[in-house]
Amino acid sequence: MPSRAASAAAAAIAEKMKDRNLPLPSAFQIRFNTDDEDEWPQEATLLSAAYSGNIRRLKEIATRLDADGRGADSTLRRTNFEGMNALHAAVGGKGLLPMCRYLVEEVRMDVNKRDTTNGKNMTPLQHAVSGGNLPALRYLLDKGADLHVASHLKGQEGITALHTAVEKGRCEIAKHLLLRGAHVDGESCRSTPLHAAVTGGHDSTVKILLDHHANPNKEVNLVTPVDIALDTPSLPCLKLLILAGAEVNGVNNPLARAALEGLTEAIKCLLEAAANPNIPNMFGKLPIEIAAEYGTREDVEIMFPFTSPIPTVTDWNVDGIISHIKLERKQLEDGDFVEKKRSELRRQGDDAFKKQEYTNLSALYTQKYMTNLFGIKYAAICGMWLHWSLCWHRMGDGKRALQDALMCKKLRPIWAKAYYRQGAALMLLKNYAKACEVLSEGLELDPESDEIDKLYWEAMELKSTSTTVA
After folding, report:
1. Could you give the count of Cα atoms lying within 13 Å of 177 in the half-sphere of its Cβ?
2. Cα 247 to Cα 234: distance, rounded to the nearest angstrom
3. What is the pTM of this model?
4. C-beta atoms surrounding 367 within 10 Å
5. Most exposed among 62, 119, 137, 209, judged by the fewest C-beta atoms under 10 Å?
């Protein structure tokens, strides 16, 4: 077992390799502070030889390591350096086919064996993708490598070779994986391949995935590829997604997001695709109001012809909208005005709750928190999402209730109430298994919560009943 110091050093060198994209031999030079391979551990020199495709040197090192006399091939199969073996190094390095054939056909190394370097658990196929070695990848697939195998690394569960290929913009490898049957919409814990391609801003790989019928509206953690295209930002990716039928009026309001970021060309693109500028964002603000506050005058001018007049704006023109927004901001800096407004909204909210007017209640909650954006407390922001989730739940909209509960949980991950609201939303969506899991986590945070306990057992019963019926 490697020492704690050795493990720390391995982690450090892995980080350097990741950040600087260093070849394995160069990484070892930094790790061991010398370019003289004779001063490295023999296992490291063996990986360097495999990486470079030097079969003769590989055999020489394996023979020296053969302490029990079982032969060089047996030694090669059993030897690794901190979790990585010769096949991982070879296909992720120069990827020379003679070396690949020697290790697989003569040494009989497992083409699906994962490495254990820093817990990454990458297979030889995934190393070939990372190294951009298409010939080695083809060879591995011909020899039985599993292209559907996914990462087990925490926070990256479900990431396949296709995810890695498109994220790195490796077009030819992506095409080959798709032709060999890779799942175009395969979902990891954080993305589909399309999400990954857009994240990298690789419009060429985005086009390849869309040509293979990737779903441009697939949500992962309530995020769509369009949301990512605006976040990156990547106008070419956005255009490709829209051309493929991406929804431009999604729950995350792409037009409002583009206005917030001042993405003028994206605003034009979305409007041309029939994005509705009269849909408010989560704070009740229309895209044109957001543009007046955070964007440019040009953005306001672009959206003005498509936006319906706002009753509170006295002069309905570009200058009038900008002046109105400036006045609103000035009022929000007035403590007396804010307190008076907040008290009035609290009273209206109580009335709406009693009358079960949840649509009005949601709007009132929005206005209430908007009056306190200057100096609003972090906990209050979380409470805002929690209240919205409750309103959507009461209106029977499980999807939006779940979205807002997840936002609350993201902001305050140790707040048991966020888990309660997420569990309630999941039950509304009839996802009882996931609800049980979430509510169980909530109980760990607050074992004394009767409401979470009650909902947990209700979810358990419904889960059992649905399983029995199925």
Report:
1. 35
2. 17
3. 0.74
4. 16
5. 119
